[in-house]
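Exercise 7. Given the encoded structure of a 333-residue chain, write a plausible sequence.
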């Protein structure tokens, strides 16, 4: 039995495996610029975040109907469940679909259908977080929030907003107004910061956007005062170790700062980001850090416990306590 965990940093579009991409392409009459899954997989050599994003947005062309989004999410939830994920807070990128003429209603209805049955079918509780693309305008983000209004919790599945895509040159403050509007609507707030961007972007995400968790946050280690603040305020960081290697944020996994971050007292979690592209799902990321960094069973338990502490389960503390009890009772073999 795998260690129980929550996944807090997962882009649903990043779970599009080559086999499903080709199946959806055939179903929708879309021609992909790759002969087969093998050739597509060979394109998964990334120099940085942007080189990945180019492929990631391109492959989304196969996602067109409600069924496509339902099938995508259902396939992810099955894989996640098999790797011990008990709760998933799932990102999606509405602007990337709206720009292709796929409506918010189609995307959310499809994802929502898979999420609604996830607990019964996979034993995984879920929440949905919509991300704004930071390389698009602040006005576009505001229009996207407006389009999402019918699908916000408690009526719909969307509980929060996030910020993703090309980081450098797109500081968090650009989105101050839309985050303010999201907060007024009762939405939770997270933001990617400090993946490729400087530590100052992390500070800005906290101060200007009111981010409650920082996605990645890796580069906080360059600023000791920021580390002190993150430790003091128990700000969760959703780290993605295999992603960091594949997007060259770290050279090799053995040099990942995770052990130093845990030693510093940071509230770290381990997640998969875009598992179809980066070589593994949540459990694969746990296994990889255990092997490459020699993390002890108690450190792994801490990471799993942190994932539930950092999750947005305030509406169901009884559930959070149950999940944490599962972590505490877990026997490593
Ligand atoms: N790792 C990542 N960073 C920024 N934007 C993303 N969109 C999907 N994955 C991402
Ligand atoms: Zn991400």
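Solution.
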């Amino acid at each position: 039995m795998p260690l129980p965990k929550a996944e807090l940093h997962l882009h649903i579009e990043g779970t599009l495996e080559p086999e499903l991409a080709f199946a959806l392409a055939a179903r929708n009459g879309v021609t992909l610029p790759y002969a087969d899954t093998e050739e597509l997989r060979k394109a998964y050599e990334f120099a940085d975040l942007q080189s990945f994003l180019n492929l990631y947005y391109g492959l989304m062309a196969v996602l067109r109907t409600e069924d496509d989004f339902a099938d995508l999410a259902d396939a992810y939830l099955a894989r996640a469940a098999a790797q011990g994920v008990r709760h998933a807070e799932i990102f999606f990128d509405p602007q990337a679909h709206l720009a292709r003429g796929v409506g918010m209603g189609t995307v959310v209805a499809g994802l929502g259908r898979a999420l609604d049955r996830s607990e019964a079918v996979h034993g995984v509780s879920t929440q949905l977080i919509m991300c704004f693309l930071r390389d698009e305008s602040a006005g576009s983000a505001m229009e996207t929030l407006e389009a999402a209004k019918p699908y916000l919790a408690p009526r719909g599945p969307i509980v929060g907003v996030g910020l993703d895509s090309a980081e450098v040159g797109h500081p968090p403050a650009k989105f101050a107004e839309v985050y303010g509007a999201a907060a007024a609507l009762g939405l939770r707030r997270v933001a990617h910061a400090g993946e490729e961007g400087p530590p100052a972007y992390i500070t800005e995400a906290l101060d200007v956007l009111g981010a409650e968790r920082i996605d990645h946050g890796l580069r906080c280690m360059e600023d000791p005062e920021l580390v002190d603040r993150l430790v003091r305020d128990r700000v969760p960081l959703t780290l993605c170790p295999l992603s960091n290697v594949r997007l060259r944020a770290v050279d090799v996994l053995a040099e990942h700062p995770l052990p130093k971050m845990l030693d510093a007292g940071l509230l770290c979690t381990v997640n998969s980001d875009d598992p179809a592209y980066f070589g593994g799902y949540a459990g694969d990321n746990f296994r990889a850090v255990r092997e490459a960094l020699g993390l002890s069973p108690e450190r792994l338990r801490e990471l799993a416990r942190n994932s539930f502490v950092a999750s947005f389960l305030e509406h169901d503390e009884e559930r959070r306590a149950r999940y944490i009890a599962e972590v505490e009772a877990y026997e490593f073999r």
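Remark. The radius of gyration is 18 Å. Students should compare their own answers with the one above.
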